[in-house]
Amino acid sequence: MKAASNCFLITLDDSGQPQARLMAPFDPDSAMNVWLATNRKTRKVEQIRQNPRVTLAYHDAAGPGYVTLIGKARLVDDLAEHRKHWKSEWKDFYPGGPEGPDFLLIQFTTERIEVMSISHHVADAPRGWQPAVLVRQGSGWRQP
């Protein structure tokens, strides 16, 4: 995930069509939850309000490999969290900074992790090209 640096956030629109957009997430925390920032006027905000089930997809071209996180998103409009999850390189996108009217956070809670990495020999051939899978169970993880 760190090698990829960016990910795709995938939501569902009101017709059920998946919608993907490139995002610059924070690194996951110890529980594999991820914070992202967005403009509150974007379509993804309304899509998350309508259906919080979303997917984050990371691609490591150098690996090659990928990580897919499946879970739920929550919109966070808390000034302390805004300040905590602010990147100075975003100033051109959010002129008001973390206090500005357009800045909004998305807190993603991971429920399922799928990983494939050729360079790390995780779910690579000849094992059938099926990703390694972990599912959240309480505060830990288990293989299904």
Structure in words:
This protein has 144 residues and is mainly β. It has one domain: Roll (Pnp Oxidase, Chain A). The chain has helices at 43-50, 79-84, and strands at residues 7-12, 18-23, 34-39, 53-60, 65-76, 103-117, 132-137, 140-142. Strands 1, 2, 3, 4, 5, 6, 7 and 8 form an eight-stranded antiparallel beta sheet that branches. A hairpin with a 5-residue loop joins strand 1 (7-12) and strand 2 (18-23). It is globular. The two termini are 22 Å apart.
The shape is: globular
CATH-wise, what's the superfamily? Answer: Electron Transport, Fmn-binding Protein, Chain A
Sequence stretches where pLDDT stays below 50 over 5 or more residues:
none
Q: Give the radius of gyration.
A: 16 Å
> What structural class should be given to the helix and strand makeup?
mainly beta
Main β-sheet, in a few words? 8 strands, antiparallel
Domains, number: 1
Cα-to-Cα separation, first versus last residue:
22 Å
The CATH architecture classification is: Roll
User: In the CATH scheme, what's the topology name?
Assistant: Pnp Oxidase, Chain A
Under CATH at level 1, the class stands as Mainly Beta
Kindly state the number of beta strands. 8
| Overall pLDDT level | 93
Strand content: 35-45%
Number of helices, counting only DSSP H or I runs of 4 residues or more: 2
